[in-house]
Amino acid sequence: MSASSDPLAARSGPASSRRAGGGFVSLSWLGVAPFFLFALLFLLLPTARLLLGAFQDADGHFTLNNIARLFEPAILDAYKISLQISAASALLGAVFGLLLALAAIRGRLPGWIRPTLTTFSGVASNFAGVPLAFAFLATLGRMGLVTVLLRRYLDFDLYAGGFSVLSFSGLTLTYLYFQIPLMVLIVSPAIDGLKTEWREACDSLGGSAFAYWSRVALPVLWPSILGAALLLFANAFGAVATAYALTGSSLNIVTILLYAQIRGDVLHDQNLGYALALGMIVVTGLSNAAYIWLRSRAERSRS
Question: Could you tell me where the Low complexity compositional bias lies (predicted)?
Fold first, then answer.
């Protein structure tokens, strides 16, 4: 009997994929090794370090004082403002992003609209930090381009009504620059999953467009929409570079307070900063867990 016809030899595979103990190991693991190394060095180990530091004092002794200080009024207010900004930007980003995606995918628009919107969304969703803060200051600051044009040609003072790019509304508006494109990218596959047969069946039964969207499309899209909104919430809650570059210390949000505790000269308390980060991990972890659950539910409903 030849080796090629031996079923045992066929199942044994190449010798390079076998361990000395007789088991099998695939060389494909080498391809994902950099990912696991990156996750270990920049995600798992730093998270373990801050989890440990949240329950230590400056001398390395175990303490619950850092966790107890999270309930101080100033820190609770920082969490409250951060939650409000994240919720506002996530809600507005989800609504406008969904409308944009529906118009580009289901609307009767020219064919070049969707790839152009997708390309812009891919770039804008990653445009944040100091460049984004500078762009909004140059556009909507007190001497920004749009502010000056409104004052000169329409006799409308944007700041007379209480608006400020350094305020709650200004930071929320800035976050929308990357929240709306991110929503477009997330919800587009769900919109593509709406089958044409569902609309045809609704039309054949005498259903209107409103009946289709309210009773067929939106119930199918709802888990994806809600999951995307939760992901937008977590994305805004963890943003620090844009907020710090735009508002500095004028807006008391938890990410700026965390930065001040770890890197600042006045409020320096590294272990309290670890506790603040632990609270943020809990909030974003719950949001991401809910997003994963809703995404799996949406995939089941489309299958």
Answer: 9-19
- Convert the pLDDT of each residue in 196-222 to its tens digit: 898 889 888 888 888 999 888 898 899
CA atoms of 48 and 131, how far apart (whole Å): 31
DSSP 3-29: GGG-HHHHHH--GGGB-TTS-B--TTH
Residue 291: CB atoms within 10 A of its CB come to 22
Q: Delineate the domains of the chain, giving CATH numbers in brackets.
A: 17-53 (no CATH), 65-302 (1.10.3720.10)
pLDDT at 15: 47
CA distance 295 to 189: 11
Q: CB of 171 within 8 A of CB of 85? A: yes
Q: Supply the DSSP symbol for 24.
A: B
Instruction: Spell out the alpha helix ranges (H) of the chain.
Output: 7-12, 29-39, 45-53, 65-69, 73-105, 113-124, 130-140, 145-153, 168-192, 196-204, 209-212, 218-237, 241-247, 254-263, 270-302
Q: Three-state SS for 56?
A: strand
Helix, strand, or coil (residue 229): helix
Sign of CA dihedral 108, 113, 114, 117: negative
Contact 96/184 with Cβ under 8 angstroms? no
